[in-house]
Amino acid sequence: MTRRIFVIGATGAQGLPVCRGLTRDGAYSLRVLTRDANSERARQLAELGDVEFIEGSFANEDNLRKGYEGCWGAFVNIDGFNTGEKTETYWTIRAYELAIESGIKFFVFGNLDYGYKKSGYDPKFRCGHYDGKGRMAEWMLSQRKGHSMGTAIFTTGPYIEMAVSAGTPMTPRTVEGVVTWAVPLADGAIPHVALDDCEHYVRWLFDHPDRSDGLDLEVAIDHITYHDLAKAFQKVTGKPAQFIDIPLATYFEHLPLKGTVPAGYNADPNDPATMTFLQNFSGFWNMWRNSGGNKGVIQRDYKLLDEIHPNRIKTAEEFFRREEEKRKSQGLPSIFETIEGGKLGMILKLTEDGRKGKFLSFKRVSLSDPARPPFVALSYVWGDLTNTLPLDVSGQITQATRNLHKILGRLSESHFDELLWIDALCIDQQNPHECTSQVALMGEIYSHAEYVLAFLSPASEPFSLGLDYIEATARDTTIHSDPPISPHLTVRDLNASDKPLQDSLIGFFAAPCAHGFLDIPSEINGGLTIYTATLRMKHLVDMLIPRKLYTEDFLAAISLFRVRHCSDPRDRAFGYFGLRSPGLDIKSEIPVDYTVSVADLYKNLAVALIEKSQTLDVLSHILHESSIEKRTDGLPSWVPDWDATIDDRYHLTYTERTNMTRHCCASGDTKPEWRVQSSGHVMTRGLQIAVIEATAPGYPSIIPGSTLGGKKIINGWRQLAGLPPLSDGPPRENGDAESHRERIFEDALSGGFTSMKWAKGCFEYSKAYQAWLEWFISAEGSLAKSCKQVIQDFDELIRQTSERRRFIVTSDGQIGFGPEAAKKGDVIVIIPGGKVLYILRMVEVEDPDCEVRKYRLLGDAFINGAMAGEKVNPPTSEFTEIVIV
């Protein structure tokens, strides 16, 4: 059975070759701790064979115990540039102690030289990311008598690959065609390490625990001066190279990072223990300046290294030669071509990540304090709450979504150094009382911020180039005139013939058009079609326009974003309370309170909306369709489940339909009589106008534009309406009675809405209906150019009335549309304050002597001839007491 090794630091520059060496020939299997098991480096590790991944952080004891469990050995190389020296010290101790606790048999620690001690504690040699490891290595070896775990130290140094990589302390550049290393090394030397050699050394340590236990194996190629490095490069490549010694001050002036930033990118800049970049790397270069000839501060036993690894790389020339051969075999440019072209790769994971490690610390501020420091507020999509990675905040590990990690990485890359308000972190999401107080302040927080940083998902990046082109072409309308736009048209330096731009545009528009929209789901858009993604952007735009419905009416606003995900279902209400729009402010009726249950909040919200608006508009937002998954238990039938899932396409139809119902007045000028009982039941009055006799499926929920089943659907409706089926054309009228019935049917299809593009019963309405009907029952499904817009407009009207609804006919011959769950025997009623009609289903009454009937609300209904108050006039109409459960 193979021995299993737990590896911390596997995705780092050193970790990859170490893992390669361990898995070679199947001698060891691996368990790897990583922040992201889907990263490119993690995928490279997965190809090595028996490799198990644990997502987490070394700064988490549960992650460490889980990693060690059942393993024989451990290789631990903690990222000191992540933590900083102080935090690295603590977690190195805990990693070592937990390995002993977990029964690890052999422990190898990835180390660097303790330069401060080796120099005789001369402060000019203090280098935090070296001393932090070296100090701990000595401590580990001093602890060996107290336990049975074998311990070996693997001490490396600057990788020689860093001398030909981007973003390192010794990255070269070309000066007038000459490859140049301009670093403050003087006549010193660096004991460079070849990463490929690490593969052999660490494998040797695990293979020979009897000899390596207690050993500090300090490795290197050689102590290499940079004059020798340049000569070796020139000899191998045939290209000119040079070393220029520069003062330390000059060196730091030309670095992209400020010398005052923390050397450990997660280290607290306000902690006196934190070394700055300048302090740390001054010590770094002083070590090498004083190590020439293997006689100074840092020394190596090359005789021992030759014994352990006879085939090791021994000179810079040998390294460059192997590197050139490797590049040639892989079809890559030579080292010189890569340097000259400014296309050096990145060898340090620190650099690849763009110093993405995230140190965060809390600072308490008061919004009412005039002296409060300026801050920036972050606006972003949280993302999948089940897919998180650990994040260190003030020394405490919390879980944050991948979206937030990516955002913090981007901010780190841009050297963002301002106070940042992040709702997911600054509000304790597990504390309902804190959520209650903080969410109520959201409007104040955002309005007092210096500015708001809004982040889009990184998944949208492939579309950026194409969208730039679309935006550029939209600025100049003249290029869209006949003849059509050329496929090679260049607009503002964006050439449509360039393949990257073409790929981006194709990715954006790669879908067949139906009703003029793009309807193929795209993985890059999180599974959304371009059509639905555009709709979601439209919602945001709608909320930005003053005095529009969605900025003045809370019910419209909450319905607008019903398709969005919420980490807490209560945020579907509380999330709007901070918006500075008088029409959306119902905080006085519904206080922010995260201790209240979701069901109680939604019930209280429904009552508040009824009382505030003096209408029953909220009842039209109750959706019982089969495609909608309800997620909130314990709701009365008259309360919308705002957390129910709803797809984008139907959401558009639903929001347009509910907006249309605002113009109806089925109950005349009556006001709501809505008395909520402690049980959640409602006492009100109702006027029963009919009983459903039969129903038929509504508008087919198929791809828009397709008329598959159109004739079958319309004939089903006509049959219930007492009309003959259609053949291949518009209906032929036979007699006045049938003609009258056709008019009623024609009017009923629009839901009897009182506000629409065409006046009901007018010639234009009939003409639009006939054009739509001819298209709807046609086998071709194509739209005639002459009436394309009319048909599309009328079709949208029919959809709003009938999609995912039922065509209904009552026992007395009335027709219209109701909720999908409606069936024979359900009653149609008018309720005071309701602008539309409602479908109720009687429930069994426990008390047979109770005269008040109890009903379950199924949803709203549109009945022809009842939407403008016709049924409540004259005032002799009799309303009776009813209970809605």
Keywords:
alpha/beta, Rossmann fold, 8-stranded mixed beta sheet, 7-stranded parallel beta sheet, 32 helices, 29 strands, NAD(P)-bd_dom_sf, HetReg/Transcr_Mod, HET, NmrA-like domain-containing protein
The H-level CATH homologous superfamily of the domain at 3-350, spelled out, is NAD(P)-binding Rossmann-like Domain
Briefly note the structural class of the backbone.
Answer: alpha/beta
**What's the main sheet like?**
8 strands, mixed
Helicity, in percent? 25-40%
| CATH architectural designation of the domain at 3-350 | 3-Layer(aba) Sandwich
Protein name: NmrA-like domain-containing protein
Organism: Fusarium redolens
Domain NmrA-like: 1-261
InterPro entries: HET (IPR010730), HetReg/Transcr_Mod (IPR052895), NAD(P)-bd_dom_sf (IPR036291), NmrA-like (IPR008030)
Structure overview:
Helix 2 (40-46) links the parallel strand 2 and strand 3. The strands form eight sheets. Strands 22, 23, 24, 25, 26, 27, 28 and 29 form an eight-stranded mixed beta sheet that branches. Strands 3-2-1-4-5-6-10 form a seven-stranded parallel beta sheet, with helices on both faces. Helix 21 (464-474) packs across helix 22 (499-509), helix 28 packs across helix 32 (788-802) and helix 31 (763-776) crosses helix 32 (788-802). Among the domains are: 3-350, Rossmann fold (3-Layer(aba) Sandwich); 375-455, no CATH class; 699-802, no CATH class. By secondary structure, the chain is of the alpha/beta class. Helices cover 35% and strands 16% of the residues. The protein is built from 32 helices and 29 strands. Mean pLDDT is 82; it is low at 354-358, 481-488, 508-526 and 702-708.
